[in-house]
Every structure is written in structure tokens, then in C-alpha cells.
Amino acid sequence: QCFRALCCKGPPPPRPEYDLVCIGLTGSGKTSLLSQLCGESPENIVSTTGRMLPLFHGILQHSELGGGADSIRKYWSRYYQGSQGVIFVLDSASSEDDLETARNELHSALQHPQLCTLPFLILANHQDKPAARSVQEIKKYFELEPLARGKRWILKPCSLDDMEAVKDSFSLLINLLEERDFEPSRM
């Protein structure tokens, strides 16, 4: 970029923008993680939709969808259109019932017609809690290997205490999104 600024006298090329949908049950940590990534104070956390999230070498626009009740989750699909990727946040230290609900919701998302071809970043949040399940336990419990075969997905552990791991996870997702941008069109 220094070379470009000194020699080319033009603005840098625009960074790509990606529209992502961030889904997960209430209490999984969606708002906290995204707010930390944006550099916002945790005291000022408010659930949002459509907030810009500048990050690394792309800009991620996300719609953040939560809601533990079936009455709210049934509306998630209204936000799927136009998405280029999915962030699914789950509470790895949740109760068995909540984990089962999260599993069902992830399965639904992976099979949804508007999402099934998109890259998924699955964040196993709250790894700092004593009851947190490991990534291997989650992968097995959620049956990710057989269910997501042929799909592009990443499962990563995370917590608010380790934002570098979260940033690394988002970098991996951006790489998947960029790979998709360069795939030749199939006719």
C-alpha cells in the first residue's frame, strides 16, 4: 500500500463487502462477540440488525438474529435473502436442552435453500466457562461431518476473553468468501 500511495497517486482499491447473517439462540453471545469486534463498550450492548462491521480486508455487513423462543426463530429466514455467509454462535456451556435446540437450528440453517451453498462459521462460544464442551464434542454431537459434507464450514472455539481467536475465525471466513468470489462460474 505504501508503494501504491507513493507511485500510483490513486486511491487504494475498494475492499470487498460481504453480507452475512449471524444467528444463534438467546444468550449464545452474538451481540457481545460482534460488539467486541467493533470495539464497542460491553455496557452499551444492544441487539441490532444491519449494522456495519468493519473487519480485516473486507467489510462484513451482518444481520444479527437471536431469540430463544420458537415464535421468534421462525422469522430468521426473512433475513437470509442476499446473505453471502452465515455466522452461527452457540453457547458451548449451555444445558442439554438448549444444546439440542441449537443443534436443530443449525441443521435447519445448513439445509435452508437460501443458506445451504453458503460458507458457515460456527463459533462455540463461552469456552471460558467450566461446563464448556470441546470443539470435538460439539462436532460429534451436532453431527457436522455427515451433515455438512460438501459444504464449506468452520467450527472454532471462542470466548470474550480471547478475541484474537475470534478475529482469526473471521479471517478464515473471509478467506472462504474470497475463494467463492474467485470460483469460475458454472454453466
From TrEMBL:
Family indicated by similarity: Belongs to the small GTPase superfamily. Arf family.
InterPro entries xref list: ARL15, P-loop_NTPase, Small_GTPase_ARF/SAR
Protein name per Swiss-Prot or TrEMBL: ADP-ribosylation factor-like protein 15
SUPFAM superfamilies in the cross-refs: P-loop containing nucleoside triphosphate hydrolases
Binding site for Mg(2+): T31, T48
Pfam families named among the record's database cross-references: Arf (PF00025)
Entry binding sites for GTP: G24, L25, T26, G27, S28, G29, K30, T31, G68, N125, H126, Q127, D128
Record keywords, A-Z: GTP-binding, Magnesium, Metal-binding, Nucleotide-binding
GO MF annotations, alphabetized: GTP binding; GTPase activity; metal ion binding
Organism (species): Amazona collaria (yellow-billed parrot)
